[in-house]
């Protein structure tokens, strides 16, 4: 495992403010790692609502199944996250393990197990020994404090090279409300896969339904428009919690997603998701370049998305970016294989604003030296203009380097 | 570019017999390479029928469009293949270039341009100067001989590390007929992509319709069940030619695909396609392991194919194989993301016959040492039993190594 921080890590880390109604604590439970924290307990005051979106995998982890079933209640008091073991592909013991973890947490917090949410990331196929949480969670519940955000973001890391946090403060009605978020991204632990976990907290008084609507709409152009290697973890989890504490300062209670007072909040919420998902791309395994794929002139947005994903997931495009090569031929290939409407002779392709191809052939003004220079930048934008319609979309990814292969293939050698 | 022959190259190369009615010649036209042949001319006697299947790319190369349009005629007299330039993404000049090449060939051979078939592989986005064929093709037409098969297979190589040929002789009626095939596989030339070209020749008297049926059915479980990196070239071309010369020896003329006399021929034809497509997998860029993914117990064959392809294209699975790691967790992940019916708790997974997981958890008999030893083999079979139905399918691929990234990403550095 590399310990060097990704060269794409954001230079500035925000100060994370308190969210009234949320307390955090972390511990080293020795689930797999030595000498680092691996359990996060988040405590939420009574009245906290919850929403979630999860992996689309047909083989989800036990914690994903646990959370999906508990979401119906709409209320949450505790979130337990562990790194080191994903509790995935663990058969019936996996289910028993989530139930035991929730039981230990519910006792520690003094709430129903149906108000306990769980997420696990790490090795898969190994039974998770939930008895390790016994004692630990009770102690965490006692020591939890409101100002523990960076520690929390660190406790959920696996091979992430930096903790990922974002925060925003906006007006809801006339009151100030705060949104904090954290994420862990494309790391892997042998023998495991990349798993994305993210948790958002706010003191805004939002119903569970409103929160779910915000989340569902919010991920569409952020976490769902992100790919590292096209592989989908069995454990991907994004949960949002709203304590409602800002109601005490006069924030209006929002129970309809269409409420016009939500406008600024929605925008800030979306920005938090955008920031966290971009940070995940910046910490892609072995990543040396952040890659933004923009497809415009498509017949529909889903069509633009599919083409953008085809480009973003193409190993040949990703290795070209790693080689600082403005290889538009591979971009044409990826457009062509997407199966969506495309006309070779109308295609234009730019790298970082420099058009290299137009009308299905090399741009007459193409200047190899100028393009080569531009490809040295740490952020590369590939823009494809299809010339068919008015729809556009955007996807984030990273390059494919030898380090990716080393991280994912070398550890047995 | 590496010049070392893939460690997965077949140890034995067959003697390629003559196909009556086919003559071959190669030349060094200097299209891109120095010191090697880069043009193949195949001449077919009058009465030769033709069939073809092509890339599904929405942005096909000019030669693909040329061949598609000419297939309707059903007859062929000449095939011109060049390496070094793919004549893809070359706009209107690409179309003009195919027309000029066909014109030069038709003069050299003395046939209609509608009987000329073309394939190009190599750099894309560069205009192909078809005037380079002037003179060359006329000379090739004069010097063509029936026994030039290995030279032909070499002339169409790009970054292939070995020429790919296969041959079979079977009875059609009471007469002996022969099938010869050649292919070039997943190579790339800067700035280009992998392109698969394959050409099959037989002296069997088959109508164009029969040949097309054989080809369409034959690729389904061979070339279409093959993936190197999930990327689809704009130039993939597979053409089959039947000279009918064996009719002189008493071979029956076959004009219906359902003709029972075709049985042995169909089997041999399929074996040629299987051999060539496996050779392409064995020469995947940077490949060190041939990987066979078998999915059984699926609800339908297309569902099994989709799951097998999801596994075969997963960078995490492919890097694990490169690392000789029987990482069944990543296989579960790839099953889950395929979106097809799957039940985590019914899954069984084996590597080279050793079951590592069953009923959605690690196999109790799992022996790390035994599995690790098995993973050192040059051919790895991943078998997934879904436990849902009776359908099965199989896909071939190779591992993902640092050499793949080096071949595709390093050349600018």
Quick tags:
homodimer, 413 residues, Ubiquitin-like (UB roll), six-stranded mixed sheet, five-stranded mixed sheet
Structure explained in plain terms:
The structure is a homodimer of 413-residue chains. Chain A is an alpha+beta fold. The two termini of chain A are 13 Å apart. The first copy, chain A, folds into two domains: 22-282, 4-Layer Sandwich (L-amino peptidase D-ALA esterase/amidase), CATH 3.60.70.12; 290-409, Roll (Ubiquitin-like (UB roll)), CATH 3.10.20.340. Chain A is globular and about 70 Å long. In chain A, a hairpin with a 2-residue loop joins strand 12 (354-358) and strand 13. In chain A, the strands form three sheets. The first copy, chain A, has a six-stranded mixed β-sheet with strand order 13-12-11-14-10-15. The first copy, chain A, has helices spanning 62-70, 91-109, 136-143, 149-155, 208-220, 263-282, 301-312, 315-322, 328-337, 368-374, 402-409; strands spanning 22-27, 39-44, 49-54, 78-85, 116-123, 164-172, 175-184, 197-202, 237-242, 290-298, 348-351, 354-358, 361-362, 379-385, 391-398. The model of chain A is unreliable at 187-193 (pLDDT under 50). The first copy, chain A, has eleven helices and 15 strands. Chains A and B meet through helix 2, helix 8, helix 9, strand 13 and helix 11 of A and helix 2, helix 8, helix 9, strand 13 and helix 11 of B.
């Amino acid at each position: 495992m590399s310990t060097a921080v990704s060269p794409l890590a954001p230079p500035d880390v925000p100060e994370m403010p308190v969210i009234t109604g949320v307390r955090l604590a972390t511990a080293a439970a020795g689930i797999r790692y030595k000498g680092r924290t691996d359990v996060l307990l988040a405590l939420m005051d009574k009245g906290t609502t919850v929403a979630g979106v999860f992996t689309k995998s047909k083989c989800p982890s036990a914690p994903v199944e646990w959370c999906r079933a508990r979401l119906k209640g709409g209320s949450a008091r505790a979130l337990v996250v562990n790194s080191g073991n994903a509790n995935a592909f663990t058969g019936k013991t996996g289910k028993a393990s989530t139930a035991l973890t929730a039981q230990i947490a519910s006792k520690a917090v003094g709430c129903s197990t149906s108000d306990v949410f769980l997420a696990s990331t790490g090795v898969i196929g190994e039974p998770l020994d939930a008895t390790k949480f016994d004692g630990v969670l009770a102690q965490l519940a006692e020591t939890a404090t409101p100002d523990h955000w960076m520690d929390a973001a660190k406790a959920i890391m696996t091979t992430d090279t930096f903790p990922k946090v974002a925060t925003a403060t906006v007006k809801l009605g006339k009151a100030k409300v705060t949104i904090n978020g954290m994420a862990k991204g494309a790391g892997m632990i042998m023998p495991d896969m990349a798993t994305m976990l993210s948790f958002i907290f706010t003191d805004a008084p939002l119903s569970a339904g409103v929160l779910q609507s915000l989340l569902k709409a919010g991920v569409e152009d952020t976490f769902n428009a992100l790919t590292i290697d096209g592989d989908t973890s069995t454990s991907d989890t994004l949960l949002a919690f709203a304590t409602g504490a800002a109601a005490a300062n006069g924030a209006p209670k929002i129970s309809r997603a269409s409420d016009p007072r939500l406008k600024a909040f929605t925008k800030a919420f979306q920005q938090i998701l955008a920031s966290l998902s971009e940070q995940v791309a910046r910490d892609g395994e072995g990543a040396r370049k952040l890659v933004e794929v923009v497809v415009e002139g498509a017949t529909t947005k889903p069509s633009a998305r599919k083409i953008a994903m085809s480009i973003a997931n193409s190993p040949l495009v990703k290795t070209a970016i790693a080689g600082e090569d403005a290889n538009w031929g591979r971009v044409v290939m990826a457009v062509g294989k997407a199966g969506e409407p495309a006309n070779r002779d109308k295609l234009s392709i730019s790298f970082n604003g420099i058009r290299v191809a137009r009308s299905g052939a090399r741009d007459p003004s193409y200047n190899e030296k100028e393009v080569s220079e531009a490809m040295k930048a740490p952020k590369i934008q590939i823009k494809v203009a299809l010339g068919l319609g008015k729809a556009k979309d955007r996807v984030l990814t990273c390059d494919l380097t030898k380090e990716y292969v080393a991280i994912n293939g070398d550890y047995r050698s």
